[in-house]
What does this fold into?
Amino acid sequence: MSDRVAEGTKALKQPESKLSVVRSISMDGLVAALMPFSPPLALFLLLGLSMRRRDRLLGGLRQDRLTLGIVSAVVLVGVVEVIRFRFGRETFGDLLGVLALVWLYIVGEHILENPPVFFRILSRSLGVFALMGLLAYFLPVSLRFTALGQEIVFFQRAPGDPKSVVLLGLPANSLGPLFMATFLLGLVRIFRPGSPWTRVEGAGIALVGLGSTVLMGVRLAVLGMAAGSFIFSFAVGLRGLLLAGLAFLVATAISPGLLGRFENLLAIQQTEASRLYLWQSALTIARRYPLLGVGPGRFAEGYRQLPPVPEWAYFEDPHNAYLRFTAEWGVPIAIVFFGWLFWKLDQVWTRNHNLLRWGAVSAAAAFLLMAFFETYFLKFHVAMPFWLLLGLAQREDWEEASG
It folds into this structure.
């Protein structure tokens, strides 16, 4: 082992004072509390933590050569793309966005101080966020305010249209992954050993997440909840799956039209562009530009170059994160990037998990499933918790505190 690697390993293991640890955990908790409500502020705090704990971060990267290789590959291809498109804003922004997502994974694996505490506070903040979604659904008012010259929609909803709910600038579909995570993290806390209050709190969080999803008719969030519950059932047995199944029966009873929305998910033609058509278009773009793609952030340009398409199919998003990344970045880097991502997910399957860790894995895996139907994990304001949870799932210190 080289001297630098040894120094990095020493930085990882170096003990901190009790006061320093308390401060670190408090800062991590603040990040978790702010994340659903103000991703930019949470990002700013995480940048500060990364600077303060840079020895830990660099030491972890030196030990994880695969992740370091992925960062290097993305930077290399990204720089080529930025030069290729003359430092275009979309290309440069997309490069920074992908690097930021990988950085969040690294922060989860090496920077955050206490996974159980972070998990617990994140579940509570998501529960409050979903509760605000319910208020936006039921209250017939619109609340907006202006900050730094920008109008921000606190919440609004058009009468008679549950899909028109907007919360903190996010439309209902973008709220779906966060509601899905609310349900799954709450479900985990129901089964987590602890006081009765912990279980009651978990049940309340899960019900708020489920209720928000059902009332707004966010079908992909329901799909994610089902997938995540199935994964989590491996940790708690049949009772977890039965509980989740009962919840979804209640959901369909409350909102019978939800099942009908699933029938249209892959419809050949409908009022919105067919996902199958858009996926075929993305594959066509990938075949035309196999090595470097059409360019990060430039899917719309590639889509417009295709032969004339039906009027109903004029969309600028393929509704599939994997195909979008492949079409924009090229086939080689897509294979490398997604190979790393799913290999990291696979690594946690073979380990012994406690329930909180299973919850982190379930939420991250469900999020990756939802990415087959939307470009969620490329949208930083929605994807932050899931990339952090995927990094946290790699950790071995989930037993240091109760949650």
The two ends are 37 Å apart (CA to CA). The chain has a mean pLDDT of 80.
